[in-house]
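Quick start: read one record
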Amino acid sequence: MVAKVCFTAVASKGGVYGPFDDDITLEFETAVTSNKAYDPTSGLFTAPTSGSYLFSFFYQAPKNKPSGLCLVKNQQVIVKTCDKNIQGSTHTDNGGNVAILHLRAGDTVCVRLLAKCHVTATNRVTSFSGFLIAED
């Protein structure tokens, strides 16, 4: 029987999150759905079983502020999305990315906010999701 592993979590601290001097793991505090594999206090997804997983992350960032997030597996950057959102911009910035990863039980996946970047942490516009596609 295939394990049911899935989650969606949103950043909900309120307002603009960032900038920080270094890359930081984003804590998506509000778990919309979860099977306990995602920990909202650390921002880490820990694979409960080996298999192929799909992960996605999307964000909104305020106008005139640089934005950037990356998906990280076991401390290794897998995919990124970013924008300079240069001075004078009159709109917010939106971005995201998706990756399919093979994980072993115990591997971790998280989303990091890149140094000097911002995201919006309100109104459920910045999210992180994942689910098991096929168990080994």
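The mean pLDDT is 89.
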